[in-house]
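Example 3.2
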Amino acid sequence: MSKEKTIPANRYYLTQAVIGAVILALALALAGVEASMGLKKVLYDLPWFIGLIGVAVLGLGLANWKKSGKVEGASVTLSKSRTHDFLLNNAIILALAVLVVVICFKEHSFMQLKVMKDILAQASPRIIIALGICFTLLIAGTDLSACRMVGLAAVISASMMQTVEYANRFYPDLPQINPIFAIIPAILACMCFGALNGFLVAKFDMHPFIATLAVQVIIYGACSLYFDLPPNNSQPIGGIRPDFSAIGQTRIFAGEGTFLGFIKDIPILGTLVGNISILIPIAAVFIIAIWFVLNKTVFGKNVYAIGGNREAAVVSGINVFATIMGIFILASALYGVGGVLEAARTAGATNNYGVGYELDAIAACVVGGVSLNGGVGKVSGILSGVLIFQVIQYGLQFIGISPMWQQIIKGIIIAVAVAIDLSKYRKK
């Protein structure tokens, strides 16, 4: 048997807070050394990153310390098995941390807040797509049609948002409509196909892999037919209106004349959020909304119940048909939003937009702790999974690693994550 040590919870979390304070003090000292010795081109924004870690550890420690004070006799047990479980559950994140350190040593300029903001901006549409696909994974299913819905939404929205001056307009006689009237049809089109997915799975008990694979092919064919309509004739859609592309390209707090531009001049706050992509707060809104749906609504609890034990869910009176329909429709709406944001971010679209996004989203969810066996998964895990892959992709490109090696590394991470998930499931 492994030796165990039990210590009072308030002492444990107070120690955690002290460690956070020490890390924060180290960051401040490093910032002072950087300023006095002119090491900006060596350390870049490293003091900021260390400081953010210190603030996070300090805040978490104080919050838990305050909670533990309300529970009389609360304690924390330390043991080898608990340490093993922690390392197992966070193996991918720890490996990522090591990779980031290696990248930073190889290319110091990676240690910039600008780089972090770029990674978050690129990850934002993918986070929304992954939030959609997590619903299907939570019921031990999947959704292979997500990628084609992203492309469908991108093509539909972009085709209606071209400037009058553009020579090859998709709709030559279409007036300059409000962007919302292009976004809504794009999302509704995806929701129609999402309803078809849900109907095939819920009504005929068809495996989601087969159902969504069939719908994926249908969507691609329909999107290609639409994309091939004259006068476009399968040409990449360009000439996107600035008011639409602004949805994906605007930098908030960027400077004079921009929304709340004065924030960039505020010490610390301006450095952290100045010149940040509008995609990041948009993704944050969806993260909060999906967290609320999964944790605070009957629908969310039903999703977990069906994923945990479908037969038990039926016996308990849950309307499985309606819930599964709702899952696929909600997921498709999120894919549609992701597609619209991608079209706005890149100021264009083709019928091949979104290819591979569904596999990346599934992989990110699994790496983030969403079990393929259903019933287990958190929004925070999905967020971390998407960011892990985005950091890997961005970081390896940053130091000039071949895209082929990037695919190998990504595949290894997916295999390890699934192996860890299955090992935890077997233990249960």
